[in-house]
Amino acid sequence: MGIGNWNFTGNWLLEIFYFKMIAKITPLIRLPSTADVFDYFIPPDLEAGIKPGQLVSIPWRSSLERGVILDIVPPPVPRRGLGGGQEGGFRARPIRKIIDLIPVLTPAQLKLIKKFSEYYFCAPGAVARLVVPEMPVRRSGGVERNVGAVDFKIEKSQLAYLNQAAAGIKEASELEIKDISSFIWLVFWFQKQYSSLVILAPTLHTLEAFGSVLIKKFGESLAIIHSGLSRGAFWRAYQKILHSQAKLILATRQGVFLPLPERSCILMFDSGSDDFKQYDQHPRYDARTVVKWAAELTASRLIYTAPTFALWPQAKPIILPQASRVKTQIRLIDLKQTLGQKGFSIISEPALEAISEAENNKKKVVIISLREQGDDKVSVKRIKEVLTAEGKNVNDIIISPPQILESGELSSWRGKISSLIIASIEPLLALPDYRSSERVFYRLKKWQMLCEELLIPEMLLQSYSPDNLAIRAFALGEEEQFVKSELDFRKELGYPPFVELVKLSYKGNDDKEFEKITSELKLNVGIKILGPYIEHRSKRKSLLLKLRDKIEIPLLYSLPSSQWVVDRDPENVL
């Protein structure tokens, strides 16, 4: 299938005569982020079988490398100079061979790459290098993580309510879920309606918990994709999806780039999670945005699921009934009143009473702290010290950061925990970002969802800011007032959903370069530029662009990722 060592570097007419088409190819090697595609001639013996999306072998400098074809176009017609010679010489090397006749990228993926590159200000070639999986050099079994099955249950009395909700589910694009077991029920329900399902989860822990249950039903027709897989395991799972052998696909945020089946159903679990945003590599993207395009391009149905859709623009969620009759009661404990008083403790009297009651009933109590260390703040370490001084056996109390609740590690304690105590939510409120209140509300609703999954009847929220609208919305049900206040605030100051944001962070040390780019950006009509300011965590010099209209900013496509971070729809602006 290859063309040997053909390497035309002579007469341009001879090249045009032999090669009728050229392929736009990006080499699948480490390249600068601004590197896009390169032109390669298609030899005559490959013309009949060549297609966009195929893996090919190409000459690259002094070696052969893998590349992927993004497009096939006619070669440019050389212009004749005044002396009759070629003007503006065009040179390209020929493709050596097609590695696989079956394209590794589907037509939908190729369109997605183009749309992604336009929206996130990056070269299509860079996106393709992100999407195409690495081909293993040799087959290796790898080491698969062995995760114990998580216990998801539906009470018989709730099945009738879930089945009654089916009519509304058929039309919904947003589903408000109360526990995880009802979501698993939803998966099985949709499995009867669609030939293929795709579940996107924000974390690997959640993905594995789902997989431990769903593999019993789907077996070999289940494909799981995440960054923790070996190169060989990832490639085999990708190929299973590409060849339509997977009826259920489980993936983290990178699943939006997979060769998704046509007319499938895509369920995004815990849609409000910040983990759906890629924020530490180039290009930065939000899977919640990209999945919309993927669904449109594959004619698939997309359903977002979350414990709340407050502040989601135009969201009209259907509420999915919970899997059990246990409803977690919320108690707001006001620590502001006792702060500074003699005998003040970071663990309130109601919390101590809940711990004592659990001990008497041989139940567990879980205490969540956002900090693990800190002698003078609310932290796991400090809570243990306080409880020890109160005569409590801390070995009988689960005191941990929130990961233990969010990862599913407490599933073995289902029905055996009497109270969840949130020691303090204030560290989240203190984050210098316009979305801090929204994040607090969402996180609390998520913890409530997990409490109801674990059949925890009571959740105690200790707060030094009991009058905060997000806290009142959660604990007292004042959600409408909270949403109105947040939207008024964002409209007045110019934040989403009323404007689009792009954050530029400069990693270099050349002040003149930073000023040059800033000056060029100011020439664009329709952009409001805030800054420069120093980012809270990275300490980088940054600019925040506010876009009120859909405008093109060509400059952003050319900024090298080695010097600049371009973040559209940033999770944090400070």
What does this protein look like?
The chain is of the alpha/beta class. It folds into four domains: 12-131, PriA, 3(prime) DNA-binding domain (GIY-YIG endonuclease, 3-Layer(aba) Sandwich), CATH 3.40.1440.60; 156-320, Rossmann fold (3-Layer(aba) Sandwich), CATH 3.40.50; 329-491, Rossmann fold; 499-568, 2-Layer Sandwich (Alpha-Beta Plaits). 30% of the residues lie in helices and 21% in strands. The protein has 17 helices and 26 strands. The strands form six sheets. Strands 11-12-10-13-16-9-17 form a seven-stranded parallel beta sheet, with helices on both faces. The relative contact order is 0.09.
Report the β-strand fraction as a percent range. Answer: 15-25%
Question: Going across the major beta sheet, what is the strand order?
Answer: 11-12-10-13-16-9-17
CATH superfamily of the largest domain: P-loop containing nucleotide triphosphate hydrolases
User: What is the count of β-strands?
Assistant: 26
Biggest sheet descriptor: 7 strands, parallel
Please give the radius of gyration in angstroms. 28 Å
Query: Helicity, in percent?
Result: 25-40%
Q: Uncertain regions: pLDDT < 50 for 5+ in a row?
A: 1-14, 81-89
What is the CATH domain class of the largest domain? Alpha Beta
Outline: globular
Q: How many independent structural domains?
A: 4
CATH fold-level assignment of the largest domain? Rossmann fold
How many DSSP helices?
17
